[in-house]
Specification:
heterodimer, A: four-stranded mixed beta sheet, 5 helices, B: 411 residues, Aspartate Aminotransferase, domain 1, Aspartate Aminotransferase, domain 2, seven-stranded mixed beta sheet, four-stranded antiparallel beta sheet, 17 strands, 38% helix, 17% strand, globular
Chain lengths: 155, 411
Protein backbone atom coordinates (compact mmCIF):
# COMPACT_ATOMS: atom_id res chain seq x y z
CA UNK A 1 0.00 0.00 0.00
CA UNK A 2 1.42 3.40 -0.88
CA UNK A 3 1.77 6.25 1.61
CA UNK A 4 -1.20 8.23 0.30
CA UNK A 5 -3.51 5.21 0.71
CA UNK A 6 -2.15 4.58 4.24
CA UNK A 7 -2.85 8.21 5.05
CA UNK A 8 -6.44 7.94 3.74
CA UNK A 9 -7.48 4.52 4.95
CA UNK A 10 -6.13 4.61 8.50
CA UNK A 11 -7.22 1.91 10.96
CA UNK A 12 -9.50 4.44 12.68
CA UNK A 13 -11.35 5.12 9.41
CA UNK A 14 -11.82 1.46 8.58
CA UNK A 15 -13.00 0.77 12.13
CA UNK A 16 -15.61 3.56 12.02
CA UNK A 17 -16.70 2.39 8.55
CA UNK A 18 -17.17 -1.21 9.63
CA UNK A 19 -18.70 -0.26 13.00
CA UNK A 20 -20.35 3.13 12.65
CA UNK A 21 -21.22 4.76 16.00
CA UNK A 22 -24.44 6.71 16.71
CA UNK A 23 -26.13 5.20 13.63
CA UNK A 24 -29.61 4.85 15.09
CA UNK A 25 -32.13 7.57 14.22
CA UNK A 26 -33.19 9.70 17.22
CA UNK A 27 -36.97 9.44 17.70
CA UNK A 28 -38.51 11.89 18.28
CA UNK A 29 -35.92 14.28 16.92
CA UNK A 30 -35.73 17.97 17.77
CA UNK A 31 -34.27 18.65 14.34
CA UNK A 32 -33.35 16.59 11.32
CA UNK A 33 -31.81 16.96 7.86
CA UNK A 34 -30.85 14.86 4.86
CA UNK A 35 -27.72 15.36 2.80
CA UNK A 36 -26.88 13.91 -0.60
CA UNK A 37 -23.95 13.92 -2.95
CA UNK A 38 -25.71 13.53 -6.32
CA UNK A 39 -22.42 12.75 -8.08
CA UNK A 40 -21.84 9.52 -6.19
CA UNK A 41 -25.21 8.88 -4.55
CA UNK A 42 -23.99 9.12 -0.95
CA UNK A 43 -26.81 9.87 1.49
CA UNK A 44 -26.72 11.02 5.09
CA UNK A 45 -29.80 11.13 7.26
CA UNK A 46 -29.21 13.10 10.44
CA UNK A 47 -31.37 13.41 13.55
CA UNK A 48 -30.68 15.51 16.66
CA UNK A 49 -32.02 15.86 20.18
CA UNK A 50 -31.36 19.41 21.34
CA UNK A 51 -31.97 20.41 24.98
CA UNK A 52 -33.38 23.78 26.05
CA UNK A 53 -29.90 24.57 27.30
CA UNK A 54 -28.82 24.51 23.62
CA UNK A 55 -26.83 21.34 24.19
CA UNK A 56 -27.07 18.62 21.52
CA UNK A 57 -27.56 15.62 23.73
CA UNK A 58 -27.97 12.99 21.00
CA UNK A 59 -26.90 12.69 17.37
CA UNK A 60 -28.09 9.98 14.97
CA UNK A 61 -26.21 9.62 11.67
CA UNK A 62 -27.44 7.05 9.18
CA UNK A 63 -25.17 6.92 6.14
CA UNK A 64 -25.42 5.10 2.87
CA UNK A 65 -22.10 5.79 1.30
CA UNK A 66 -18.38 5.18 1.04
CA UNK A 67 -15.95 4.54 3.87
CA UNK A 68 -14.90 8.19 4.09
CA UNK A 69 -18.46 9.52 4.32
CA UNK A 70 -19.56 6.83 6.80
CA UNK A 71 -16.46 7.17 9.00
CA UNK A 72 -16.66 10.97 8.94
CA UNK A 73 -20.28 10.90 10.14
CA UNK A 74 -19.50 8.35 12.83
CA UNK A 75 -16.47 10.27 14.12
CA UNK A 76 -18.41 13.55 14.00
CA UNK A 77 -21.33 12.19 16.03
CA UNK A 78 -19.10 10.58 18.64
CA UNK A 79 -17.04 13.74 19.03
CA UNK A 80 -19.85 16.28 19.11
CA UNK A 81 -22.55 14.54 21.13
CA UNK A 82 -23.11 16.41 24.39
CA UNK A 83 -21.62 19.67 23.12
CA UNK A 84 -23.35 23.03 22.89
CA UNK A 85 -24.62 24.35 19.58
CA UNK A 86 -22.03 27.13 19.59
CA UNK A 87 -19.17 24.65 20.17
CA UNK A 88 -20.53 22.44 17.41
CA UNK A 89 -20.67 25.37 14.99
CA UNK A 90 -17.01 26.15 15.64
CA UNK A 91 -16.11 22.48 15.16
CA UNK A 92 -17.93 22.41 11.81
CA UNK A 93 -16.02 25.51 10.69
CA UNK A 94 -12.74 24.06 11.89
CA UNK A 95 -13.43 20.77 10.08
CA UNK A 96 -14.21 22.60 6.83
CA UNK A 97 -10.98 24.54 7.32
CA UNK A 98 -9.02 21.31 7.80
CA UNK A 99 -10.46 19.90 4.55
CA UNK A 100 -9.50 23.11 2.76
CA UNK A 101 -5.89 22.50 3.80
CA UNK A 102 -5.95 24.41 7.10
CA UNK A 103 -4.90 23.28 10.58
CA UNK A 104 -5.61 19.73 11.66
CA UNK A 105 -8.49 19.71 14.11
CA UNK A 106 -7.72 18.05 17.43
CA UNK A 107 -10.39 15.95 19.07
CA UNK A 108 -10.83 14.25 22.41
CA UNK A 109 -10.81 10.79 20.82
CA UNK A 110 -8.05 11.65 18.37
CA UNK A 111 -10.23 10.27 15.58
CA UNK A 112 -10.93 13.51 13.70
CA UNK A 113 -7.20 13.82 13.04
CA UNK A 114 -7.43 10.56 11.06
CA UNK A 115 -9.67 12.30 8.54
CA UNK A 116 -6.97 14.83 7.66
CA UNK A 117 -5.58 12.35 5.08
CA UNK A 118 -8.67 12.98 2.94
CA UNK A 119 -7.32 16.33 1.82
CA UNK A 120 -4.69 14.46 -0.25
CA UNK A 121 -7.62 13.17 -2.37
CA UNK A 122 -9.50 16.25 -3.63
CA UNK A 123 -12.36 14.24 -5.19
CA UNK A 124 -13.07 12.61 -1.82
CA UNK A 125 -13.26 15.82 0.26
CA UNK A 126 -16.99 16.10 -0.44
CA UNK A 127 -17.45 12.59 0.98
CA UNK A 128 -15.90 13.68 4.28
CA UNK A 129 -17.78 16.98 4.36
CA UNK A 130 -21.28 15.63 3.67
CA UNK A 131 -22.20 14.63 7.29
CA UNK A 132 -20.83 17.92 8.64
CA UNK A 133 -22.79 19.95 6.08
CA UNK A 134 -25.91 17.97 6.95
CA UNK A 135 -25.35 18.68 10.66
CA UNK A 136 -24.96 22.38 9.86
CA UNK A 137 -28.28 22.24 7.99
CA UNK A 138 -30.08 20.57 10.91
CA UNK A 139 -28.78 23.28 13.26
CA UNK A 140 -29.64 26.11 10.85
CA UNK A 141 -33.12 24.73 10.61
CA UNK A 142 -33.44 24.47 14.41
CA UNK A 143 -32.33 28.07 14.77
CA UNK A 144 -34.69 29.23 12.02
CA UNK A 145 -31.79 30.36 9.77
CA UNK A 146 -33.01 27.94 7.09
CA UNK A 147 -36.36 26.37 6.29
CA UNK A 148 -34.77 23.61 4.20
CA UNK A 149 -34.03 20.25 5.74
CA UNK A 150 -32.17 18.97 2.68
CA UNK A 151 -28.70 19.79 1.38
CA UNK A 152 -26.70 18.70 -1.62
CA UNK A 153 -22.95 18.92 -2.17
CA UNK A 154 -23.66 20.26 -5.65
CA UNK A 155 -25.60 23.40 -4.68
CA UNK B 1 -3.94 -14.80 -28.13
CA UNK B 2 -5.33 -11.48 -29.23
CA UNK B 3 -5.42 -10.99 -33.01
CA UNK B 4 -3.93 -7.53 -32.44
CA UNK B 5 -0.25 -6.86 -32.52
CA UNK B 6 1.13 -5.15 -29.43
CA UNK B 7 2.39 -2.32 -31.63
CA UNK B 8 -1.24 -1.18 -31.88
CA UNK B 9 -0.67 0.45 -28.47
CA UNK B 10 1.75 2.85 -30.17
CA UNK B 11 -1.23 4.33 -32.02
CA UNK B 12 -2.55 5.60 -28.67
CA UNK B 13 0.09 7.93 -27.19
CA UNK B 14 -2.00 8.74 -24.09
CA UNK B 15 -1.34 5.17 -22.88
CA UNK B 16 2.39 5.81 -22.70
CA UNK B 17 2.54 7.28 -19.22
CA UNK B 18 2.96 6.53 -15.54
CA UNK B 19 0.20 7.36 -13.04
CA UNK B 20 1.11 7.50 -9.33
CA UNK B 21 4.39 5.83 -10.28
CA UNK B 22 2.65 2.89 -12.01
CA UNK B 23 2.17 2.15 -15.72
CA UNK B 24 -1.17 3.62 -16.79
CA UNK B 25 -3.95 1.03 -17.15
CA UNK B 26 -6.99 2.53 -18.82
CA UNK B 27 -10.19 0.54 -18.24
CA UNK B 28 -12.78 3.27 -18.76
CA UNK B 29 -13.37 3.22 -22.52
CA UNK B 30 -17.13 3.02 -21.93
CA UNK B 31 -17.02 6.59 -20.59
CA UNK B 32 -14.90 7.79 -23.51
CA UNK B 33 -12.37 5.96 -25.63
CA UNK B 34 -8.75 6.93 -26.15
CA UNK B 35 -7.75 8.56 -29.43
CA UNK B 36 -5.47 7.14 -32.13
CA UNK B 37 -2.82 9.38 -33.71
CA UNK B 38 -4.35 8.90 -37.18
CA UNK B 39 -7.64 10.46 -36.03
CA UNK B 40 -5.93 13.45 -34.39
CA UNK B 41 -3.68 13.78 -37.45
CA UNK B 42 -6.68 13.85 -39.79
CA UNK B 43 -8.22 16.71 -37.79
CA UNK B 44 -4.94 18.56 -37.61
CA UNK B 45 -4.17 18.08 -41.34
CA UNK B 46 -7.59 19.47 -42.15
CA UNK B 47 -7.41 22.48 -39.83
CA UNK B 48 -3.86 23.37 -40.89
CA UNK B 49 -4.61 22.59 -44.53
CA UNK B 50 -7.71 23.27 -46.62
CA UNK B 51 -9.69 24.63 -43.67
CA UNK B 52 -12.58 26.95 -44.51
CA UNK B 53 -16.26 27.20 -43.66
CA UNK B 54 -18.49 24.88 -45.66
CA UNK B 55 -21.60 25.17 -47.84
CA UNK B 56 -21.19 28.87 -48.62
CA UNK B 57 -17.87 29.82 -50.17
CA UNK B 58 -17.23 29.93 -53.89
CA UNK B 59 -13.47 29.74 -53.40
CA UNK B 60 -11.15 26.75 -53.58
CA UNK B 61 -10.70 25.82 -49.91
CA UNK B 62 -14.36 26.25 -49.01
CA UNK B 63 -15.32 23.86 -51.80
CA UNK B 64 -12.55 21.48 -50.71
CA UNK B 65 -13.72 21.62 -47.06
CA UNK B 66 -17.33 21.04 -48.11
CA UNK B 67 -16.23 18.03 -50.14
CA UNK B 68 -14.26 16.57 -47.19
CA UNK B 69 -17.19 17.17 -44.84
CA UNK B 70 -19.80 15.63 -47.15
CA UNK B 71 -17.53 12.70 -48.02
CA UNK B 72 -17.11 12.06 -44.30
CA UNK B 73 -20.91 12.03 -43.94
CA UNK B 74 -21.16 9.41 -46.71
CA UNK B 75 -18.40 7.28 -45.16
CA UNK B 76 -20.04 7.41 -41.74
CA UNK B 77 -23.48 6.55 -43.10
CA UNK B 78 -22.04 3.58 -44.90
CA UNK B 79 -20.00 2.52 -41.83
CA UNK B 80 -23.22 2.48 -39.78
CA UNK B 81 -25.07 0.45 -42.39
CA UNK B 82 -27.20 3.19 -43.88
CA UNK B 83 -28.08 3.69 -47.53
CA UNK B 84 -27.70 7.19 -48.97
CA UNK B 85 -30.81 6.86 -51.14
CA UNK B 86 -33.21 6.04 -48.30
CA UNK B 87 -31.43 7.16 -45.15
CA UNK B 88 -30.01 10.44 -43.93
CA UNK B 89 -27.27 11.10 -41.41
CA UNK B 90 -27.78 14.29 -39.41
CA UNK B 91 -24.87 15.60 -37.34
CA UNK B 92 -25.56 16.53 -33.73
CA UNK B 93 -23.39 17.49 -30.74
CA UNK B 94 -23.46 13.95 -29.31
CA UNK B 95 -25.89 11.05 -28.80
CA UNK B 96 -27.77 12.95 -26.08
CA UNK B 97 -28.39 15.80 -28.51
CA UNK B 98 -29.54 13.30 -31.14
CA UNK B 99 -32.12 11.80 -28.72
CA UNK B 100 -33.36 15.31 -27.95
CA UNK B 101 -33.76 16.11 -31.67
CA UNK B 102 -35.70 12.87 -32.09
CA UNK B 103 -37.93 13.39 -29.04
CA UNK B 104 -38.76 17.05 -29.59
CA UNK B 105 -38.83 17.16 -33.36
CA UNK B 106 -38.85 13.90 -35.35
CA UNK B 107 -41.09 11.75 -33.12
CA UNK B 108 -42.90 14.63 -31.39
CA UNK B 109 -45.95 14.75 -33.74
CA UNK B 110 -46.61 11.04 -33.23
CA UNK B 111 -47.00 11.26 -29.44
CA UNK B 112 -50.50 12.17 -28.27
CA UNK B 113 -52.19 12.55 -24.89
CA UNK B 114 -52.62 9.16 -23.20
CA UNK B 115 -50.05 7.46 -25.45
CA UNK B 116 -47.23 5.34 -24.05
CA UNK B 117 -43.51 5.78 -24.54
CA UNK B 118 -41.82 2.43 -23.97
CA UNK B 119 -38.32 2.35 -22.44
CA UNK B 120 -36.18 -0.23 -20.67
CA UNK B 121 -34.80 -0.03 -17.12
CA UNK B 122 -31.26 -0.19 -18.48
CA UNK B 123 -31.41 3.13 -20.35
CA UNK B 124 -28.72 5.76 -19.92
CA UNK B 125 -30.18 9.08 -18.72
CA UNK B 126 -29.58 10.36 -22.28
CA UNK B 127 -32.27 8.01 -23.58
CA UNK B 128 -34.58 8.45 -20.62
CA UNK B 129 -34.83 12.03 -19.39
CA UNK B 130 -35.80 13.54 -22.81
CA UNK B 131 -38.68 11.03 -23.00
CA UNK B 132 -39.80 11.88 -19.46
CA UNK B 133 -40.01 15.53 -20.45
CA UNK B 134 -41.83 14.79 -23.71
CA UNK B 135 -44.29 12.54 -21.83
CA UNK B 136 -45.02 15.34 -19.33
CA UNK B 137 -45.58 17.88 -22.09
CA UNK B 138 -47.86 15.56 -24.04
CA UNK B 139 -49.61 14.05 -21.01
CA UNK B 140 -48.33 10.69 -22.25
CA UNK B 141 -47.27 7.75 -20.05
CA UNK B 142 -43.92 6.00 -19.65
CA UNK B 143 -43.55 2.24 -19.38
CA UNK B 144 -40.34 0.39 -18.56
CA UNK B 145 -39.40 -3.14 -19.56
CA UNK B 146 -37.35 -4.93 -16.92
CA UNK B 147 -34.58 -7.53 -16.86
CA UNK B 148 -34.38 -11.30 -16.62
CA UNK B 149 -32.50 -12.85 -13.68
CA UNK B 150 -29.48 -13.00 -15.97
CA UNK B 151 -29.68 -9.21 -16.53
CA UNK B 152 -30.74 -9.52 -20.13
CA UNK B 153 -33.68 -7.57 -21.40
CA UNK B 154 -36.89 -9.51 -20.77
CA UNK B 155 -37.93 -9.92 -24.40
CA UNK B 156 -41.24 -11.60 -23.54
CA UNK B 157 -42.12 -8.67 -21.31
CA UNK B 158 -41.08 -6.31 -24.09
CA UNK B 159 -43.34 -8.05 -26.60
CA UNK B 160 -46.21 -8.05 -24.13
CA UNK B 161 -45.69 -4.35 -23.41
CA UNK B 162 -45.76 -3.60 -27.15
CA UNK B 163 -49.04 -5.48 -27.55
CA UNK B 164 -50.65 -4.01 -24.43
CA UNK B 165 -49.58 -0.38 -24.78
CA UNK B 166 -49.20 -0.07 -28.55
CA UNK B 167 -46.53 2.52 -27.70
CA UNK B 168 -46.22 5.66 -29.79
CA UNK B 169 -42.46 5.41 -29.27
CA UNK B 170 -40.14 2.58 -28.23
CA UNK B 171 -36.62 3.74 -27.34
CA UNK B 172 -33.90 1.34 -26.20
CA UNK B 173 -30.16 0.89 -26.11
CA UNK B 174 -28.17 -1.49 -28.31
CA UNK B 175 -25.70 -2.20 -25.49
CA UNK B 176 -26.18 -1.35 -21.81
CA UNK B 177 -23.39 0.93 -20.60
CA UNK B 178 -23.56 -0.69 -17.16
CA UNK B 179 -24.40 -4.37 -17.73
CA UNK B 180 -22.79 -4.80 -21.14
CA UNK B 181 -25.98 -6.59 -22.20
CA UNK B 182 -26.35 -6.77 -25.98
CA UNK B 183 -30.03 -6.25 -26.73
CA UNK B 184 -31.80 -8.08 -29.58
CA UNK B 185 -32.53 -4.73 -31.20
CA UNK B 186 -33.60 -6.21 -34.52
CA UNK B 187 -36.35 -8.33 -32.87
CA UNK B 188 -37.31 -5.44 -30.60
CA UNK B 189 -37.67 -3.02 -33.52
CA UNK B 190 -39.84 -5.55 -35.33
CA UNK B 191 -42.10 -6.12 -32.31
CA UNK B 192 -42.55 -2.38 -31.79
CA UNK B 193 -43.13 -1.66 -35.47
CA UNK B 194 -45.85 -4.33 -35.57
CA UNK B 195 -47.79 -2.17 -33.09
CA UNK B 196 -47.19 0.99 -35.08
CA UNK B 197 -44.49 2.44 -32.80
CA UNK B 198 -41.70 4.74 -33.85
CA UNK B 199 -38.40 3.13 -32.83
CA UNK B 200 -35.18 4.75 -31.60
CA UNK B 201 -32.04 2.71 -30.99
CA UNK B 202 -29.38 4.29 -28.78
CA UNK B 203 -26.15 2.83 -30.18
CA UNK B 204 -23.78 5.14 -28.26
CA UNK B 205 -22.25 2.27 -26.31
CA UNK B 206 -21.97 0.03 -29.35
CA UNK B 207 -19.76 2.28 -31.49
CA UNK B 208 -16.33 0.71 -30.89
CA UNK B 209 -17.63 -2.79 -30.10
CA UNK B 210 -20.46 -3.84 -32.40
CA UNK B 211 -21.43 -3.08 -35.96
CA UNK B 212 -24.53 -0.86 -35.85
CA UNK B 213 -26.14 -2.05 -39.13
CA UNK B 214 -28.87 0.56 -39.34
CA UNK B 215 -30.73 -1.06 -42.23
CA UNK B 216 -30.62 -4.56 -40.81
CA UNK B 217 -31.93 -3.46 -37.41
CA UNK B 218 -34.58 -1.37 -39.17
CA UNK B 219 -35.12 1.30 -36.52
CA UNK B 220 -36.63 4.65 -37.46
CA UNK B 221 -33.78 6.51 -35.80
CA UNK B 222 -30.41 5.34 -34.49
CA UNK B 223 -28.22 7.69 -32.45
CA UNK B 224 -24.44 7.58 -32.19
CA UNK B 225 -21.57 9.49 -30.61
CA UNK B 226 -17.99 9.79 -31.87
CA UNK B 227 -16.06 10.05 -28.63
CA UNK B 228 -16.83 6.50 -27.48
CA UNK B 229 -15.46 5.06 -30.74
CA UNK B 230 -11.98 6.60 -31.07
CA UNK B 231 -13.40 9.87 -32.42
CA UNK B 232 -13.39 13.41 -31.01
CA UNK B 233 -15.84 14.94 -28.54
CA UNK B 234 -18.53 17.41 -29.62
CA UNK B 235 -19.86 15.36 -32.52
CA UNK B 236 -22.57 12.74 -32.77
CA UNK B 237 -25.32 11.92 -35.22
CA UNK B 238 -28.67 10.41 -35.83
CA UNK B 239 -29.46 8.25 -38.82
CA UNK B 240 -33.08 8.18 -39.89
CA UNK B 241 -35.30 7.20 -42.77
CA UNK B 242 -35.46 10.03 -45.31
CA UNK B 243 -39.27 10.10 -45.56
CA UNK B 244 -39.60 10.45 -41.77
CA UNK B 245 -37.20 13.40 -41.73
CA UNK B 246 -38.90 15.06 -44.66
CA UNK B 247 -42.15 15.22 -42.67
CA UNK B 248 -40.44 16.52 -39.52
CA UNK B 249 -40.08 20.16 -38.49
CA UNK B 250 -36.53 21.42 -37.85
CA UNK B 251 -35.21 21.33 -34.29
CA UNK B 252 -33.09 24.46 -34.38
CA UNK B 253 -33.22 27.51 -36.59
CA UNK B 254 -30.64 29.81 -38.13
CA UNK B 255 -28.01 29.80 -40.82
CA UNK B 256 -27.53 26.90 -43.25
CA UNK B 257 -30.91 25.32 -42.47
CA UNK B 258 -32.92 27.83 -44.52
CA UNK B 259 -33.86 27.97 -48.19
CA UNK B 260 -35.30 31.52 -48.32
CA UNK B 261 -35.53 34.16 -45.61
CA UNK B 262 -38.09 36.97 -45.71
CA UNK B 263 -39.12 39.66 -43.18
CA UNK B 264 -41.79 37.60 -41.48
CA UNK B 265 -41.00 34.00 -42.26
CA UNK B 266 -38.60 31.62 -43.93
CA UNK B 267 -38.57 28.29 -45.74
CA UNK B 268 -36.36 25.35 -44.92
CA UNK B 269 -33.42 23.88 -46.74
CA UNK B 270 -33.47 20.26 -47.94
CA UNK B 271 -32.09 17.31 -45.96
CA UNK B 272 -29.73 17.00 -44.19
CA UNK B 273 -29.18 20.77 -43.88
CA UNK B 274 -32.70 21.36 -42.52
CA UNK B 275 -31.51 19.78 -39.26
CA UNK B 276 -28.06 21.35 -39.11
CA UNK B 277 -28.43 25.00 -38.16
CA UNK B 278 -25.19 26.98 -37.92
CA UNK B 279 -21.59 26.05 -38.70
CA UNK B 280 -21.07 22.43 -37.68
CA UNK B 281 -17.92 20.97 -36.03
CA UNK B 282 -16.24 20.39 -39.42
CA UNK B 283 -12.88 19.12 -38.18
CA UNK B 284 -14.61 16.77 -35.74
CA UNK B 285 -16.61 15.22 -38.57
CA UNK B 286 -13.37 14.67 -40.51
CA UNK B 287 -11.80 13.14 -37.39
CA UNK B 288 -14.77 10.86 -36.80
CA UNK B 289 -14.52 9.44 -40.34
CA UNK B 290 -10.80 8.78 -39.72
CA UNK B 291 -11.69 6.96 -36.46
CA UNK B 292 -14.14 4.74 -38.35
CA UNK B 293 -11.49 4.05 -40.99
CA UNK B 294 -9.19 2.90 -38.17
CA UNK B 295 -11.85 0.53 -36.81
CA UNK B 296 -12.65 -0.70 -40.32
CA UNK B 297 -9.03 -1.62 -40.85
CA UNK B 298 -9.01 -3.68 -37.65
CA UNK B 299 -12.28 -5.33 -38.69
CA UNK B 300 -15.23 -6.43 -36.54
CA UNK B 301 -14.28 -10.14 -36.32
CA UNK B 302 -10.84 -9.29 -34.89
CA UNK B 303 -12.31 -6.65 -32.54
CA UNK B 304 -14.85 -9.17 -31.24
CA UNK B 305 -12.22 -11.87 -30.75
CA UNK B 306 -9.91 -9.44 -28.92
CA UNK B 307 -12.58 -8.07 -26.58
CA UNK B 308 -14.11 -11.48 -25.91
CA UNK B 309 -10.71 -12.74 -24.77
CA UNK B 310 -10.13 -9.81 -22.40
CA UNK B 311 -13.66 -9.73 -20.99
CA UNK B 312 -13.72 -13.47 -20.40
CA UNK B 313 -10.37 -13.28 -18.58
CA UNK B 314 -11.52 -10.36 -16.43
CA UNK B 315 -14.86 -12.03 -15.68
CA UNK B 316 -13.25 -15.34 -14.64
CA UNK B 317 -10.78 -13.59 -12.35
CA UNK B 318 -13.44 -11.44 -10.74
CA UNK B 319 -15.55 -14.54 -10.15
CA UNK B 320 -12.69 -16.09 -8.14
CA UNK B 321 -12.42 -13.09 -5.82
CA UNK B 322 -14.06 -13.08 -2.40
CA UNK B 323 -17.41 -11.30 -2.05
CA UNK B 324 -17.62 -10.09 -5.64
CA UNK B 325 -21.09 -9.58 -7.11
CA UNK B 326 -21.06 -9.42 -10.90
CA UNK B 327 -23.80 -7.70 -12.86
CA UNK B 328 -24.81 -8.43 -16.43
CA UNK B 329 -25.28 -11.64 -18.44
CA UNK B 330 -23.20 -14.64 -17.39
CA UNK B 331 -22.62 -15.86 -20.92
CA UNK B 332 -19.85 -13.73 -22.48
CA UNK B 333 -21.62 -14.08 -25.85
CA UNK B 334 -24.47 -11.98 -24.49
CA UNK B 335 -22.30 -9.15 -23.23
CA UNK B 336 -20.01 -6.60 -24.71
CA UNK B 337 -17.23 -4.29 -23.58
CA UNK B 338 -18.04 -3.72 -19.89
CA UNK B 339 -18.17 -5.59 -16.58
CA UNK B 340 -19.87 -4.02 -13.59
CA UNK B 341 -19.31 -5.40 -10.11
CA UNK B 342 -19.19 -4.69 -6.39
CA UNK B 343 -17.05 -6.08 -3.59
CA UNK B 344 -18.98 -6.92 -0.43
CA UNK B 345 -18.18 -4.50 2.36
CA UNK B 346 -16.47 -1.93 0.14
CA UNK B 347 -18.16 1.01 -1.54
CA UNK B 348 -17.49 1.43 -5.26
CA UNK B 349 -15.88 4.83 -4.66
CA UNK B 350 -13.30 3.36 -2.35
CA UNK B 351 -12.49 0.70 -4.96
CA UNK B 352 -12.06 3.48 -7.53
CA UNK B 353 -9.68 5.48 -5.33
CA UNK B 354 -7.53 2.46 -4.50
CA UNK B 355 -7.33 1.31 -8.14
CA UNK B 356 -6.36 4.84 -9.18
CA UNK B 357 -3.43 4.75 -6.77
CA UNK B 358 -2.32 1.60 -8.61
CA UNK B 359 -2.53 3.44 -11.94
CA UNK B 360 -5.77 1.69 -12.94
CA UNK B 361 -8.62 3.88 -14.25
CA UNK B 362 -12.14 2.50 -13.82
CA UNK B 363 -15.50 4.19 -13.49
CA UNK B 364 -17.42 4.12 -10.21
CA UNK B 365 -20.89 5.44 -9.46
CA UNK B 366 -24.32 5.21 -11.04
CA UNK B 367 -23.03 5.51 -14.65
CA UNK B 368 -25.90 7.86 -15.62
CA UNK B 369 -28.30 4.96 -15.15
CA UNK B 370 -30.08 5.62 -11.86
CA UNK B 371 -33.20 3.65 -12.83
CA UNK B 372 -30.98 0.61 -13.40
CA UNK B 373 -29.24 1.17 -10.03
CA UNK B 374 -32.69 1.13 -8.38
CA UNK B 375 -33.53 -2.08 -10.28
CA UNK B 376 -30.27 -3.71 -9.14
CA UNK B 377 -30.86 -2.25 -5.63
CA UNK B 378 -27.36 -0.81 -5.37
CA UNK B 379 -26.26 2.82 -4.99
CA UNK B 380 -23.26 2.38 -7.28
CA UNK B 381 -21.08 -0.16 -9.06
CA UNK B 382 -17.48 -0.41 -10.20
CA UNK B 383 -17.27 -0.69 -13.99
CA UNK B 384 -14.28 -1.84 -16.00
CA UNK B 385 -14.44 -1.58 -19.75
CA UNK B 386 -12.12 -2.58 -22.55
CA UNK B 387 -11.17 -1.24 -25.95
CA UNK B 388 -9.08 -2.27 -28.94
CA UNK B 389 -5.93 -1.02 -27.13
CA UNK B 390 -6.55 -3.00 -23.91
CA UNK B 391 -4.14 -5.89 -23.28
CA UNK B 392 -4.13 -8.99 -21.09
CA UNK B 393 -1.40 -7.26 -19.05
CA UNK B 394 -3.97 -4.55 -18.27
CA UNK B 395 -6.27 -7.26 -16.90
CA UNK B 396 -3.35 -8.65 -14.84
CA UNK B 397 -2.69 -5.18 -13.39
CA UNK B 398 -6.41 -4.74 -12.70
CA UNK B 399 -6.47 -8.03 -10.78
CA UNK B 400 -3.38 -7.10 -8.73
CA UNK B 401 -4.83 -3.66 -7.98
CA UNK B 402 -8.08 -5.27 -6.76
CA UNK B 403 -6.07 -7.32 -4.29
CA UNK B 404 -4.97 -4.01 -2.73
CA UNK B 405 -8.64 -3.26 -2.04
CA UNK B 406 -8.83 -6.38 0.14
CA UNK B 407 -5.61 -5.35 1.86
CA UNK B 408 -6.76 -1.79 2.57
CA UNK B 409 -10.14 -2.95 3.91
CA UNK B 410 -8.61 -5.81 5.92
CA UNK B 411 -10.95 -8.28 4.18
Amino acid sequence: MNDALKELYQDVIIDHYNHPRCNEPIVPATSEADGVNPLCGDEVSLTLKIQESMVVSEIGVCTQGCSICTASGSIMAEELEGKSISDIKSSIDAFKGMMAGGDVLSSTSGDIEALSGVKLFPVRIKCALLPWMTLQQAIDQYEGVSKENHISTEE
Amino acid sequence: MSPFNRSLRQDFPSLQKMVHGKPYVFLDSAASSLKPTSMVQAMSDFMLGPYANIHRGVYHDSLKSTELFENAREELLSFFGGNSQEDVLIFTRNATDAVNVTAFSIFEPYVKEGDTILLTVMEHHANLVPWQVLAKRKKAKLAYVSLTDDHQLDLQEFEKACKTHKPAVAAFSFISNVLGTINPVQSMAKMAHQQGSKVLVDAAQAGMHESVQFNLVDSDVTVMTAHKMLGPTGIGCLIAKRNLLEKAEPYQFGGDMIAKVDYESSTWNTLPNKFEAGTPPIAEVVGWAAACAYLEELGWPAIHEHEHLLLSAAYERLKQMKGVTLYGPKDPNNRSSVISFNIKGVHAHDVGTILDQEGVAVRVGHHCAQILMKTLKVPATVRMSVGVYTTIEDIDAFESALKKVYEVFRL
